[in-house]
Amino acid sequence: MKNKKKIISVVGARPNFMKLAPIARELKKKSSKFTHIIVHTGQHYDHKLSSVFFKDLGLPEPDIYLGAGSGSHAEQTSAIMIGFEKVVKEEKPDLVIVFGDVNSTIACALVCAKLPGNCGTGPVPLAHIESGLRSFDNSMPEEVNRIVTDSLSEFLFVTERSGVDNLIKEGTNKKKIFLVGDTMIDSLVYHKKKIASSYILKKLKLKPNKFILVTIHRPVNVDNRKNLARIVSIFKKVSAAAVKKDSEISIVLPIHPRTLKMAESFGLLDELRQIPNLKTIDPAGYIDFIRLLRDSLFVMTDSGGIQEEATFLKIPCLTLRDSFERNETLELGTNTLCNLNEKLILRKTTEILEGKYKKGKIPRLMDAKASQRIVNIIKTCL
Ligand code: UD1
Predict the structure, then answer these.
(1) What's the pLDDT tens digit per position in 20-45?
(2) For the chain, which end, N or C, has fewer CB atoms within 10 Å of the first or last residue's CB respectively?
(3) Has this prediction a pTM greater than 0.85?
(4) Which residue's C-alpha comes closest to atom 2 of ligand 1?
(5) 217 catalytically annotated
(6) Domain segments of the chain: what residues?
(7) Is 155 in a helix, a strand, or coil?
(8) What is the fold of 5-181+367-381?
(9) In b/e form, how buried is each residue of 208-242, taking b as 16+ CB within 10 angstroms?
(10) How far does residue 258's CA lie from ligand 1's centre (Å)?
């Protein structure tokens, strides 16, 4: 039998799992050519942030679990590096695939860069999915993770045109850059039927278009008391404006562990929970979350991926950040960058409630074929 190529995919945190699932499916279709090993670093370990996603996305159990867990950035990154170095030495992969911009991504990229690859002339080849995105804000841990990971990658798989431009400006060899689209959207389209049959609306007693979905977890927003207090005040005002227009409208907030912990420690949790018409719920699984997003009136978020999913679903998205990296969601899609600007958020809320908000177009590469393109490129080049 011909020599199969060994590929390791590494995931660690919630936003990685839906990017991996369609790649894993494509690699499985080509199992005569590839052996695929899934490594979970354990950065996210709660059922609600991790295993429920494996189940929802139909991913097989990870082959290797590193159990790195939480800690400071240095503690978490180094724990992942120590665990992953052993895996790479043992498994000797022909390619390692990393996803997005989380600490697991940079940790495993660094490990690959410092170990010899199988061909004997360089390090372990690395493929980065969701390469090239830049917020130009180095105070975000994700931005540092992106820049370092891209600089170490052999295959840079980019989701949108601006990513290619950013990489070229940084001097990246054009031959390494592949504009392929967004594997997150592949997942969403693949699971459309399951999403349509989720019971989450019934469970939470919600009606389509009668609720605002909110997610918030960025350190800049939740680790700083002033900003978190401002966010609570924004939610109060948005809730009041919405209820004035239609008393049935509520706000649903699946609360991230970081946000819960910080709101408690700043003494803001009661104030948050006392906002009339606001429901805090546990973090939702993939299928339920996308169903909530699909049927929401609009979403307020500081997440990266949700900006893309909202654009694809044509759901208005108010992004509570002051920097951005997903240009197409703003230029073509339904996204507006609002920072914590209360006036702007209330103005946009009114536009949405009055049906005057921009409708948005779906970017060309959100066509559910990104993973197919990626695996074809890997097959040709490896
Ligand atoms: C991480 C990513 C962020 C991503 C987010 C999605 C980095 C630098 N950040 O942020 O880009 O948008 O995931 O959720 O990688 N915790 C739990 N249970 C868990 C995991 C974490 O309670 O399963 C707690 C930790 O104890 C910690 C906090 O949540 O206090 C933050 O976890 P961490 O993985 O450091 O970063 P996130 O904020 O989740």
Answers:
(1) 999 999 999 999 999 999 999 999 99
(2) N
(3) yes
(4) 102
(5) yes
(6) 5-181+367-381, 193-353
(7) strand
(8) Rossmann fold (3.40.50)
(9) eebbbbbbbbbebbbbeeebbbbbbebbbebbebb
(10) 7
